[in-house]
Amino acid sequence: MQALDEYLTIKANPFRGIICPILTPFDAKGEIDYKSLEKLVHFLVSEGVPCLMVAGTTGEGLLLSVEERKKLAEAVLSYANKKVRVVVHVSCLSTRESIELTHHAQSLGVDGISAITPFFFSYSDEEVFRFYEAISKTAPETPISLYCFPGNAKFEIKRPLLIRILQNLSNIKAIKSSNPDLIRLQEYIAVGNNDFSVLCGVDALALPALTLGACGQVSGNSNIFPQPFINLYESYKKGDLESAVKCQSTINRIRAVLKDSIAYFKAASAINGLPIGIPRLPIQSLDEVEINNLKSEISKLNFSS
């Protein structure tokens, strides 16, 4: 067991409420567009988003180089200017590079670190534990969130592994579940303690997850329409379930239009007056027909009902 004074050096748990995994703008040459990034950060801050996650799935983090990810994290921290919490995603195919990004994130003083499970290869529970142990020991003062996305990463964190992680790695403070299995989500909630956050990564389940005990939502759709997510969370916390249900209905309509798609997110941002460029290859931009259809669908969204 770690000494109490070491435990007390860990920052406060930042993994609560609405967390926006911020999109990464690219210019026509496929390079990060920092001017557009600054505008996007300022937009999200002005809308009241309390926490930004850098270089996650929605941010195309795994399509960026290590140096690009470092510069991206530095830029978002600078633009956010301590007005909101900033979490940095660090996982790479290479554990060595994941550790390098973890060390860099801690050196910046980020509020938290997120790390998706090792991916592509088939890993055992022991191997995944050792990965998180390495991340945890590299940033012992920084709260860390596990990130479980079995549909993309192949690996699913199950109850015995989560128990082991929480018993041995004191700065693991959250798990994000991008998994529609609410039974698994309930297992995570049951295993955790009062200082452990279970985050939902499936926007269609934002309200159901909160009612089961989740602490917040990580939403790619909130890059484009943050208010329904903020309103849902605030309504639920106030006990206004009727308003929260209406917000969930609005979110479901947003998902139907934007298709939980990076390409659709970026096209929608431009339609809404904040152009942030195109996705990075191999992700393809929308064609002209798709953009026109998207404009029409966005115009039909009515957030008053």
End-to-end distance: 52 Å
Strand order of the largest sheet: 1-2-3-4-5-6-7-8
Structural class: alpha/beta
The CATH class turns out to be Alpha Beta
Radius of gyration, taken over Cα atoms and rounded to an integer in Å: 18 Å
Uncertain parts: 1-9
Please name the fourth-level CATH homologous superfamily: Aldolase class I
- Beta-strand residue percentage: 5-15%
Number of domains: 1
Largest sheet properties: 8 strands, parallel, barrel
CATH topology: TIM Barrel
Q: Helix content range of the residues, please?
A: 40-55%
What's the architecture in CATH terms? Alpha-Beta Barrel
Number of strands: 8
Total of helices: 13
Please provide the ordered H/E string of secondary-structure elements: HEHEHEHEHEHHEHEHEHHHH
The coarse silhouette is globular
Give the overall pLDDT as a whole number.
Answer: 95
